[in-house]
Amino acid sequence: MSTSPIYWEVSHVSRAHSSVILAPNMSHPFLQDVQSSLSLHGLSLPHLLLLLSSIFAISYWAWLRLAQKKTSLPLPPGPAGLPLVGNLPFLNPELHTYFAALARTYGPVLKLQLGKKLGIVVTSPATAREVLKDNDVTFANRDVPIAGRTATYGGYDIVWTPYGPEWRMLRKVCVLKMLSNHTLDSVYELRRSEVRKVVGYFRSQAGSPVNVGELMFLTVLNVITSMLWGGTLQGEERERVGADFRQVVSDMTELLAKPNISDFYPSLARFDLQGIERQMKGLVKRFDGIFEKMIQQRLKMEREGGSGCQDFLQFLLKLKDEEDAKTPLTMTGLKALLMDMVVGGTDTSSNTVEFAMAEIMNKPSVLRSIQNELEIVVGKDNIVEESHIPRLPYLHAVMKESLRLHPALPLLVPHCPSATCTVGGYTVPKGSRVFVNVWAIHRDPSIWSDPLEFNPERFLHDEGDYSGNDFNYFPFGSGRRICAGIAMAERMVLYSLATFLHSFDWKLPEGEKMDIREQFGIVLKKKKSLVAIPSPRFSDPRLYE
């Protein structure tokens, strides 16, 4: 039996709950002595017990927090910032190279405080795999900038829509219906017609400088708009719309790349201090007017007995009218998809062709290898067709190598974790803006030999593809958010390169040197447009019709 003094007594028994409530036994001599002592200081024993209980509870809570902090992983390392603004004042406009330099100091996962937003930069195959594959669902959402949301009717497109039923519907429409191999095969004549037009123009300008990037942009734009609503625009009207689109797309991609105070300080968003939202609304309005015109033309043609055309706009309008769809396509979603096709498909493909042409011209041995392969497969008395492309392995290697050095989206599209998770041994908080620096991974000397050298041969003996399964090489991204337009881009780039290099020799204007410097943006661009002189390789004029 215990000999300890009994300081507590039963004060109440609840019959309903059979519970016993204990209270201090105030008749015990020890407690009476304590109470007398406390009274001298104006305190009572119940007050003391309450104070001690509070101290114990607070101490226990603090201990739990400390224990939890010790067991949870820290945030990634990163450069010190300033109060309120963090690292914003120190950002270099060339973000892909700036982030790569920081990674050499702070490692493959680092953090940047961007105002109120936490930025996480991932710069290794292992950590990219954790983001894009191991935690694919968690990172399947986007950190949508105000410029992106404004550009796509509130973020209702395939790029910015949150992961879920609506996104899966849009993805299915794009990949299985609009951009499938079957559909792309069916509109080959549209691509062929546009590429042959630019070949004719190059021949008419033989011996004179031409802006390759500008002409390639217009060619890709015409292909895409022909696929979207072919047959509704002809002649001068079509050229005018094409020129208008080019300027609008250029302005939109520039706004998307600008750091926006409204993104980093949400409480200031309503003021639109830099005017980015206002400017983007103006550009979208110009696009919307064109979209509305095309839609109304198509609906009118349908009411009058059918247009006879089979294009993407016709397909989307029919899909929109399906009443039994589980996730219906709205008119807003339809326009947002048109925006994706026009903006997302033009700059990326035309810039890839421009970079590839510049790298090829800068290395005559590569140009000779391409032309030798083309002469064997296509012949000197024939024009290139898409059916020749699968038999041109060296040309495929050239495209892969160009995308290794100059990925179209150097930081991909920023991801945003839907829950706090771990990457590379560090905590990545929910809601962070996560950049995957594919540009830096593609130039990592621990992965690639002579990483800055343009060497297509490295892909002749490598099975590297665009599937996103190899995290040493994933120019189109990986996981659920991998680019939906890979098949379209591959066909457009390879067919254009094959045609231009088979039909012409190319050189720079007298006294010019090749400049392959890059300009950062959401889409990577050549800092200085490629201006080159075409010279016909064949005497038969039919090969240039």
What does this structure look like?
This protein has 545 residues and is mainly alpha-helical. It folds into two domains: 8-71, no CATH class; 89-544, Cytochrome p450. 49% of the residues lie in helices and 10% in strands. The protein has 18 helices and 14 strands. The strands form six sheets. A three-stranded mixed beta sheet has the order 3-4-10. A three-stranded antiparallel beta sheet has the order 6-14-11. A two-stranded antiparallel ribbon has the order 1-2. A hairpin with a 5-residue loop joins strand 12 (518-519) and strand 13 (525-526). Helix 8 (188-204) runs antiparallel to helix 9, helix 10 (235-257) runs antiparallel to helix 12 (276-303) and helix 14 packs parallel to helix 18 (486-503). The longest helix has 31 residues, at 331-361. The radius of gyration is 32 Å and the shape is globular. Mean pLDDT is 86; it is low at 1-22.
